Amino acid sequence: MKVLLLEDDVIFAEIIYDFLVGLNCITHVSYEGEDAEDILYTEKFDLLLLDINVPNRSGLDVLKNFREHGFKTPAIIITSFTNSDKIEDAYRIGCDDYIKKPFSLEELRVRIQYVKRIYNIENFEVIKIDKVFSFDTYNLHIIKGNKMIKLPKKEAEIVKYLLDNKNRLINISELVINIWEYDKEPSIATIRTYIKNIRKHFDNNFINTIKGLGYMFKVD
Q1: C-alpha–C-alpha distance, residues 13 and 28, integer Å
Q2: What is the DSSP string of 31-43?
Q3: Which of 108, 134, 153, 191 has its CA 20 to 30 A from that of 185?
Q4: Distances from the Cα of 118 to the Cαs of 121, 144, 195, 197, in angstroms?
């Protein structure tokens, strides 16, 4: 799991960093809001740990801007505030959980596990599509009966995202910002090629194109 930690207290940030590394997390530490915001749009993370009270730009402002751009990466807000209005603001903006200073590392672990469970982060599984087809999220295989069909990484990520949001219209922008890094946005033609390649592996036309809007993975 790849984590962005925004925390301006250097010693505390080092403690959390060492703890996250011990949990096998790839962790980037930012000590002020503008730096965190810059890296959010150049790298893809699985989880954000954002302190509210940091220099240049607060963790809430960083998350607010990120959500307004359409990114849905799970976020845990770190706060020393006791004011319930701040907590309410955090949830309204789009945080998934919060943790109040001072906190134990065990409490942080529990909250990370909670978010991982809710969003299936690194919870590899076989997703059943119908009586014939399944999708192996660990090996990135489409399973057709007893046959394994290996997918390229980007195509597998598209299948996984569409399956996680099955029977819901996913527009092109949502697909792009949740799969590609900010500076590697593909063309519409490239996305169509990926979808075309994926469709070749399915006998049934699970992936519906909603003209001018996006795609839907239709499952009964």
Answers
A1: 10
A2: SSHHHHHHHHTTS
A3: 134
A4: 8, 28, 27, 30
Cα separation, 208 vs 218, in Å, equals 7
Share of the chain above pLDDT 90, in %: 69
Question: Which string of DSSP letters, residue by residue, matches 48-82?
Answer: EEEESS-SSS-HHHHHHHHHHTT----EEEEE---
Report H helices in the chain.
Answer: 10-22, 33-40, 59-68, 84-93, 105-119, 153-164, 172-179, 188-199
Question: Is the link from the previous residue into 102 a cis peptide, with omega within 30 of 0?
Answer: yes
The SS3 call for residue 205 is coil
CA distance 141 to 150: 5
pLDDT at 1 over 90: no
The CB density around residue 207, as the number of other CB atoms within 10 Å, is 18
Structure tokens at 40: 């959010």
Q: Is 53 exposed, middle or buried (0-12, 13-18, 19+ CB in 10 A)?
A: middle
Contact 84, 91 (CB under 8 A): no
Q: Is there a contact between 12 and 59 (Cβ–Cβ < 8 Å)?
A: no
Tell me the pTM: 0.67
